[in-house]
Structure formats: structure tokens, C-alpha cells
Amino acid sequence: MQWKIKEETRMKTKMKKWWHDKVAYQIYPKSFYDTNGDGIGDIQGIISKLDYLKELGIDLIWISPIYKSPFVDQGYDISDYYGIAPEFGTMEEFEELLAEAKKRDIYIVMDLVINHCSDQHEWFQKALADPEGEYADYFYFREGKNGGLPSNYRSYFGGSCWEPVPGTNKYYFHAFAKEQPDLNWENPKLRQEIYDMINWWMEKGVAGFRIDAIINIKKDVNFPDLEPDGPDGLAGYSRAVEQTHGVGELLEDLKNNTFAKYDAFTVGEVFNMHEEELPEFIGEDGHFSTIFDFSAHCLSDGEHGWYDAPGIDFNQWRKAIVNSQLEVQKVGYKANIIENHDEPRGVSRFLPEYARNAAGTKMLGTISLLLRGIPFLYQGQEIGMQNCVWNSSEEWDDISSKDQYQTARAAGVPKEEALRICAEMSRDNARTPMQWSGEKGAGFTQGTPWMKVNPNYSQINVKDQQMDEDSVLHYYQKLIALRKSKELKEVFTYGRFAPVYGEWDNIMAFYRILDEEAGQEVGNAGKRVLIAANFGKDSVELPLEYQGKKVLLSNLPENQAEDNLTLAGCGVMVLECALHE
Ligand code: TEU
Ligand code: CA
Q1: Which residue of 230, 295, 391, 419 could cross-link 324, Cys pair, CB 3.0 to 4.6 Å?
Q2: What is the pLDDT of residues 486-506, one digit of tens each?
């Protein structure tokens, strides 16, 4: 398709923020690195790998939750916001991590889970002990309607959103698991408790937060019934979220009482936003610094679950990313990912089978990291980790994978097929231990890993790749160094995005352009860089629109830039071009 850009709108780049040029890395601590042999990754494990991350070029680390938790949803169920889970270490060790990171100019960003807490949190325990007391109003306690539940919503992890409050005729609301009761954001006392907690962590020295499921904090407190959409007679709760308005007021209150006072970096996990609200979310004075771009990931949202999730087609993927980039650059910055702890591995998901090799992995990484926005790598992405082989649903730990398997079975999907589908989408694909070496346990632990290790660790691991100049790991190092290099930093950070070669099959290509005016704003000369990738099997020759000046990066020796650009199958090149024709 031919990309039509009516107006090449771009933001003024005058207002630089400290986080605009950062490259971020997500750590899923339980599976990162275990130092005491209990099979669970820990804070000391993160500390011991800071030099590794520094060498990779990482500036900022988001750590998935490390607070005290019963781990029903792997730490996204917090029982004490002020305490470190003993599985991971102590508060002193966390402070050591902050200090060690600081020595290396690395920022630490915590995960903020404030839509809900754990049912073991003292607020909820007090609410259960006195369902008429003040703590009950920290949650949503409601009487049933017409002898039934207060509403017909299905929670994200299956079953009703309502669970009985023992000894009463009331129910409490949970959008996720029943062990994750939702907090009542309409209650100013609750809000103040949350703000105090956030400020306490900021004072400790964290640089900001990744903010979990934040759109969910606003509820239609009448909880109106919706049209049922499944054989269980319930309606998916996300449909209620789509119909809810007014989250912005809560988000402004949150920001003004916390983040704004510290110039914190915040990245929201936002699904079901009303599109026209993008400027309010991430504009110059938005609710957040940035939000994740899930536009490619949402392509595989099923109507009813994973079992009716569509596969990802190249053209749709390209269109989703291009459209998102064009929209976002009018307003602010999104955070670009190919995977995270909730998503399957990007290599297994976005690449055709023939491209699931080193060349294809480098190609996908190049696109993700050189798009306009804040790149986030997920642990293991830098070595090209892939989805795991799952032989039985028993192998999953993830609450969502188990539920989706049941949902598929209940819809009549045969066992084998349900396993195959859920294996592709399982959140556990990203949660298998980090593959540090080809030794037993992938070098992740000396003990028994808490979760299955991907059997491909003998082929894909850090140690081997460190010894191989051509490895995915070395390529990622070069790619990040290029993005951050003195000469190109400005164009990759502030340069506008312009898609090109849209009418060519299998080509994902775009320019990053800093025209003269924009260059002056950020103290740099104008520049044009072409990033072009061939997702096809066969080589392609593209006519160059602007004269090539310098090859900045290439993933295969067969790629050539002369009058034309020759890209081998799965080839990607980054080429500095003349700014004007
Ligand atoms: O995820 C929020 C969320 O809405 C997810 O259910 C998401 O829709 C799904 O995983 C996409 O595949 C966050 C966390 O990232 C997740 O790990 C938690 O389980 C969830 O919140 C509850 O805290
Ligand atoms: Ca450990």
C-alpha cells in the first residue's frame, strides 16, 4: 500500500525531557538470575548483572513487582507496598541495588500496581473483619441484584468479577483474580494512602514507575449489566471499561500529588483508552510521560479469548505500527516493545517461521529500537529468546494460561488444539528463566528453577553469544550504541517518522528525519536515516529515493547499498541518506 500522509505534523522538540533518549530494559525478577540456589531470581541477581546491562547500553530498568505478595498473580497481588518480598531479598538489598545502579548512571523504575491489592493486604483483611467499617470503603462492597450478583461481568482471569464477602449479603469487586480485590479510587482516604506510598518510594530514590492496569481505576459505580458474550452468561469486563469515562480526573490528581513533584518518569500500561484522549495521556503535560504501544499486540486479541485469536499477518502488523507512529508523533512519545511478561516472545509471534533465526531476530530488533519512541527491551530479547515448547497445560504456572485453556475447552475446542493455541499465547513463554549459559539450569540457578527452562538454552544463551562477534547479543549492543551515538542520537530521539516503500510486499521501511529547523531546536544539523527491512524469503532491490551516504548497520553480508538498496531475505539496513533529493 502507498502511505498517504496528508500533513506532516510533528511536535516541537524544544521541550526536552531527561528520559526522551533513554533505552529501557524490563526485568522479571523471579526469572532473571538466582544467586542463592533457591531456584528464584533475586535482587542480588539483578545487582550482579548491572555491568552486563550497562555494556548492553541500558539506561533505565523497570523491575516487575518485588513487593511482599502471595504470588497468586506473580507479584501483581501486593500484600505490603512498603516491604520487599523475602523471596527476592530485603529492603537493604534494594537500597544497595539503587546505589549500585546509580554508580552506573542507571535509573530504577518500580512497578506500581494500584488498581487492586492482594486479599492478604491488611486493608482487605480489616474490611473483611468489619464489612461496615471504614476499610470496607477502600474496596467495592455491593449487595446483589434480584437475588443474583451485583452485575454480570466476567473477570480478566475468568469467572465472575464478584466474590461473596463472608457473613454478609454483599460481594466485593475484582477485575482480575478473586485474590486481587479492586481498590475504591472514589475514596479520598484510599487515594491519599496510595499517594503517600508513591512519594515514599520516590524519596528513596526510584526514578519513576511503570503503572499497571491503570485505566481500570475508574469504575461506573452503578455497575450496569452488559450484553452477555459467552456461554457462561457473563460479559467480559473490558467491555465495561470501554464504556467508562472520566479516568482523566483521577489520573491528574494522582500525577499532581506524586510524580509531578519529582519530575518522575512514568509509563502507563493502558488498554481500552478512548483514542481521542491520547493528548491528555501523553501530551506535553499529559497524565504520564509515556504509555506502551500495544497496537501490534492487540492484533491477536480474540473475540472470546485466545482460542479465537487471529494470527498476525505482515501487512496488518506494518499498518498498525505505521499508523500508530504517525498518530503519536503529533502528540508525544510511546514506549515501543516487542514483548513483555504478559506477551509471547516477539520472534515467535511477529516473524514468519523461516525468519526465526539470528538474521530475522536482528531485523525485528532493529525496527523496534529505531522507531520513534522510548524502546523497552524485555529480558532475553537481546539474545533472541523464543517461545517455549509446552507438552501439557500442567506445565503452566500462569493463572491466565490456565483460565484460557479452560475457556477454550468449554467452547468445545479439542484438548490437543486448546493446548497448541494456549501454548502459543501463554504468558509463561516470556517467564521461563533467563538463559545465561548452556550449563544445567541455563546458568540461571544452581538449584531447581521455579519454572520450566526453555529446552533451547543450549543453542540460545548469553555466554555463547558473548563469544561470537556475529551474535544477536553483539548486534543489539551495536544497535543501541548506534541509537545513542553522538552523531545520531538527536535524529533517533527527535527525528520524525516517515514510512516508505509501503507498496512493496514484505518491506517494513521508514525514515527518521531531523529537518534543518528541528535540528536547530535540538542543536544538531538536519539528518535523514533510512531503516529498511525485508521480511520476505527472497532478496529485494529497492530504488533509493535519496542518495545513500553511509551504511550505519546491516545484519547480513549480502545486503548492499549502491544506487539501489539490495536486501537479502530477512535483511535489514540502516542507511544515512542525503537530507534532500
Ligand atoms: O496486565 C493488565 C492486563 O490487562 C492484562 O490482563 C493484559 O490484558 C493481558 O495480560 C494481555 O495479554 C497487568 C500486568 O501486566 C499483568 O501481569 C497482571 O496480571 C495484571 O495487570 C493484573 O495486575
Ligand atoms: Ca534466589
Answers
A1: 295
A2: 999 999 999 999 999 999 999
d(CA 55, CA 47): 14
Shortest CA distance to 282 belongs to which of 317, 342, 327? 327
Give the pLDDT confidence score for residue 446 in this predicted structure.
98
User: Closest ligand to 89 CA?
Assistant: 2
Ramachandran quadrant class, 443 (left: phi over 0; alpha: psi -120 to 50; beta: rest): left
The amino acid at 448: T
Q: Report the distance separating Cα 264 and Cα 280, nearest Å.
A: 17
Residue 86 CA, ligand 2 centroid: distance in Å: 9
Read off the amino acid at residue 37: G
Residue 172 main-chain phi, psi, to 5 deg: -110, 155
Quick check: helix, strand or coil at residue 18? Answer: coil
Average pLDDT of the chain, as a whole number: 96
- pLDDT of amino acid 8: 47
Ligand 1 atom with the smallest distance to the CA of 73 is 19
Q: How many CB atoms lie within 10 A of CB 205?
A: 14
pLDDT in tens, 291-325: 999 999 999 999 999 999 999 999 999 999 999 99
pLDDT of residue 48: 98
Query: Cα–Cα distance between 454 and 498 in angstroms, integer?
Result: 38
Q: Distance between CA 152 and CA 17 in Å, rounded?
A: 44
The number of angstroms, rounded, from the C-alpha of 448 to the middle of its chain's C-alpha atoms is 28
- The residue to which cell 539483578 is assigned: 46
Q: Which three cell numbers stand for residue 257?
A: 500529588
Which residue's alpha carbon is at the smallest distance from atom 10 of ligand 1?
Answer: 342
Residue 6 is predicted with a pLDDT of 45
At 10, the pLDDT band (50, 70, 90 cuts) reads: low
Report the residue among 76, 116, 182 best suited for mutation to probe ligand 1: largest number of ligand atoms under 8 A from its CB: 76
Per-residue pLDDT of 472-481, as tens digits, reads 999 999 999 9
H or E element: which one contains 293?
strand 290-293
The distance from CA 474 to its chain's CA centroid, rounded to whole angstroms, is 23
Q: Which residues of 323-337 are buried (b: 16+ CB within 10 A; e: fewer)?
A: ebbbebbebbbbbbb
User: Quick check: CB of 497 below 6 Å from ligand 1?
Assistant: no
What percent of the chain is helix, strand and coil (3-state, nearest 5)? Answer: 35, 20, 45
